[in-house]
Here is the input.
Amino acid sequence: MSSHHSEKAAHLHRELHSHLPPDPALRLKALETVLVRKGFLAEHAVDDWLDDYSENVGPMNGARVIARAWTDPDFAERLADDSPAAFHALIPTIDKGYPIVAVFNGPQVHNLIVCTLCSCYPLGVLGMSPSWYKSVEYRARAVRDPRGVLAEFGTTLPPGVDVRVWDSTSDRRYMVVPERPRGTDGWSEEALAALVTRNSMIGTVRDLSPVADGS
Amino acid sequence: MDTVHDLGGVQGFGPIPNTDEDDSRLFAEEWKARIWAIAMMSMGRLRADDTGWTLDWYRHVLERLPPDLYLRMDYFEKWILAMMVTAIDEGIAEIGDFRGDGPVPEPFAYTTATPLIRQAETPGRFAPGDTIVTRRDLPSMHTRLARYMRGRRGVIERVIGPQPLPELAAEGTVLREQTYVVRFRMAELWPEAEDNGDSLVTDMWDSYIEPA
Here is the structure.
């Protein structure tokens, strides 16, 4: 049962940390061994779970949805109105109750996602987040100096573009829909999806053009 | 509680690390993938077994890491400790089990089931376009009202439906309250921000806000 006892949790952290070897791989091994021996987790459950996760979840899901939204205005509208339904329609393995919210970049707006209080991310759709997304530096700075943060990713916004920083506080999980890059007329959905990067779905990258500026 | 996890706007940090990280590799090391899987499966089981466990309680367990460890440990290292704390708290294991200093552990049994208390939904008070001001103080164990958003004026952008109030969920009570997308001008939040079109948008519960 959950005690919901704050000081007990703090005490256990200190006790565990002072009594366990520092190497996280050894700590993980101890945790997994105990949970399996206790019968809380089934043997081989971790391997099976990871196989399933790596097969069905990852940035490719977001890229597919974005490429479809770029080529099909009705789908884009559905994605804006009811993101979970649009994701589920294109990728049936994604639960239609998954609380994902697509936010769209436009000529005058650029979206940037952060979770300052922990590291919320659409993990059940896009897979594990980048390590920088979980860093204290990103969590502290993205809400206060978003343009400075963008510059560290090589992103400079054109004049007239406002930044909208989304701080994830509730159960909803945001994903940025970048603008379709120039020079991609007539491209297949598959080719378009290949242009979409994980960073662009968080908003640290804006321009996905396959060709350099000025060419 | 105001612990160091509430990082939004804290100054003095350096450049963002690993900005050029490779997309195709979701976990840099095997142990990171495994703690992730263990946590996801454990959460699913605790929910199914209705032990009173909630994601907000788990978040609070993470928030109670010693502050120095919270700031310097890798994300997944924090999760290992938090999952061990969870296993002990739920009655699944004891500290000594993780040290490996006892005999092979016996099958576990939860000590006592304390299912979540579920309360009736409360109605919302706000509509899109309303100007609001956020609460200055919330004397609770766990909150999702970040420090930098408190006592600030914003505008309701959308009504997004009821969600469990984190303050109570962390203590085992589910009270679904209306939530909203609230938008703040950056200049309202930060003294050095230019008064331009840049904004901060976030989801907020009804009890976090008051009419302006």
DSSP finds eleven helices and four strands in chain A.
